[in-house]
Design goal:
Layout (H helix, E strand, L loop, with lengths): L1 E5 L10 H12 L4 E5 H9 L2 H9 L8 H8 L1 H15 L6 H5 L9 H4 L3 H9 L2 H23 L20 H8 L4 H10 L9 E5 L6 H14 L4 E5 L1 H5 L3 H7 L5 E3 L4 H11 L9 E5 L2 E5 L39 E3 L27 H15 L3 E9 L1 H13 L5 E6 L7 H9 L2 E9 L3 H7 L7 H11 L3 E8 L6 H16 L5 E6 L7 H4 L6 E5 L8 E4 L9 H12 L25 H8 L9 E4 L5 E4 L5 E7 L4 E7 H16 L3 E2 H6 L9 H4 L3 H9 L1 E4 L2
Parallel strand pairs: 1-2, 1-3, 3-4, 4-5, 8-9, 9-10, 10-11, 11-12, 12-13
Antiparallel strand pairs: 5-6, 6-7, 14-15, 16-20, 16-21, 17-18, 18-19
Length: about 700
Amino acid sequence: MILILTPPFMKPNIPHLPPLSLKGGLKESGIESKYIDLSIRVILDILSKDSLSKLFDMIEVSKLDEDQYILYSRRDLYIEKVDTVIDFLQKKNDNLAYKINNREFLPESINFDMLDVLDNDFIDLLDISESGKYLATLFVKDILSFLSSTIIPNLRVDVFENSFIKEKFSLDKILKELESNNPLSNFIEASLEKIDFTDFRVVSIMVDSPRNLFSALFISRWIKNNVKDIKIVFYSDFLNNITDGLDRRKVFGFTDYIVSDLKKDPLISIYKDSLGKDNSLTNVTFMESGEIVESVLKDLDIYPIDYTGIDCREYISFFDRLEFPSKFLYENDWNRVIISNGLYQKDFIFNDFSTDFNSNQSFNLERVISNIKDSIRVTGSRSFYFMDKTLSPSIIKKVALELVRENIDITWVGNVSIDRDFTEDLAFLSSKSGCIGVNLDFGVISERVISLVYKNYRIDDIPIVCNNFTSSGILVRGSLTYGFPTQSQQELIDSLELLRQLYSLGIIHSSFWQKFRLTEDSVVYKNPEKFGIVISEKRSNQSSIDYRERRPYNLERYYSGLKESSYSFINNLGVENSVDSWFDFKTPKTDLNRRFIERILKKSKVKYKDSDTVLWLGSSIYIEEASSDEYKSFRTYSNRIYFEYELPTKLALWINSFKNGTESGNLITFGGAKSTFPKDIGTTFSDFIRSDIWIELNLAGLKIVTN
């Protein structure tokens, strides 16, 4: 049996996804495993009345600075409130939000002091539940910040921040900390002592970043000292790809193997090896005769998320970034599912994802639907976040259609590509299947920059895709990048103007700006001259690389205005203001016409392809006798429309064939519909699809989506 552990500290709001995926892959291979999230166990232990009281007693008051002392002087309030606040963030007492929002219930210290006027104004605009969670999160972060700066180093627990991006670390320093009297060690040891290791042959420890390397090393050392005949595996991409060879030799004093690719095959091979079976290790790094041996074999497969044995209710619904108002990003009762491996847009480099860009190679519809059903059965939740970094129209169509066909009632959100094949009809199908929100990555809104990184994508596509989703009642959330190499001030201002117009027309609901980061995997890093940068320092112990740009201006100073404008636009404030008014310094005027998007939408027309699929997504169809044998009474309805016509019998049956095809899975293409359109009924196919009857049928549920 295999034990999978997540060491402190990972995001406290949801179970860590990679080990659940690994667990699902092992289950498919018939190998039993158990997952224990030590991260949430330890953080809940620390954030308890008894533990917090003991930790405050350990503080050396004479060494506190002024801010630390102010918080320490309120220690009784923190100890008194902490259990109640954690219960609230675990959704055990939702009504506490009313008390929290009066701003007298909780003590306010370090993180509250960092709020600016804009932040406080935005908090007032949130609904009572979200503002309560945001303030409760700040209360918890005050405690964690205090403990981190006094007696528990590096105790940072964030939902959205990936501190590893700019985080330097020294393995020697971490090894030295292992020998110190760190209270974190006591909390981890207390959790380890509750685990029965008797049936486990292999322990897999997830080491995602320097942040949890200390905990991983402590856990592995404790297991080696207290458990016999057990193999230890570090699942860690950064240990294999960032840390140099000398440091890895020291790491092998704690672990038997390092696996960089989060796949089941390496763990299976190690497990079989531990049982004494003949087996060759695959995709594994290990020490042999004092030398590091690497056996690397990339595997693009993905596995179902296995929630068995996981109680999502113990996780904490942190809400710590005002730029991210979407609940699915922080709520503890949203199931996470991966639909397909890789990114849809092959040349996507705005955020420098290191994901293999060969998209959709692992898509298996039957497995996806089975995973969704299993997640509902195990967790009881019907809310899903599709975690893929971006999904294509064809994948969304297949998943959504199967959800509708099998009548699987869920609510879902996901990250989708900017692609005109996300037509209004496909958006309707997505909504019908349970979609309530999509994330779109706009990147740098510049035709010049887009030409460097995308294929078949233009600025014109952004409003069309946003409008199509919005027309079906789907919330649209956009992310934009600033500071991309070669991005000009004019391009940044024009990006903001386009965003303003999206809000003005009501076809986007939330947005945020992110700073470009350079990594070794990116095209920018590999072609610095092309993008006008000079790489100033290549660091082997962090994932974001410093660089200098040749441009004479600094886009960083724009961030405050970008942030303020997004906050305001979300709440329909300042939408008609000139975009340069958001900055307290002189900026270029936008080159975009104020009706730029409006004109794009007016000119937009859907062009059907013969390969497109004709679907019936409406309610039941009733075909009954009419005034003559050549005509039938054709009736159907939707939630808003009742449709009744006397139609030629052949035409009524032709329309009904799409319903039969949708239900049976024998889908009819647009070309097939054209070729089977009945003759001698007084109209042609081309005239019929422009008729009022066709328009009403479309409203009732007759849709044409990309194949």
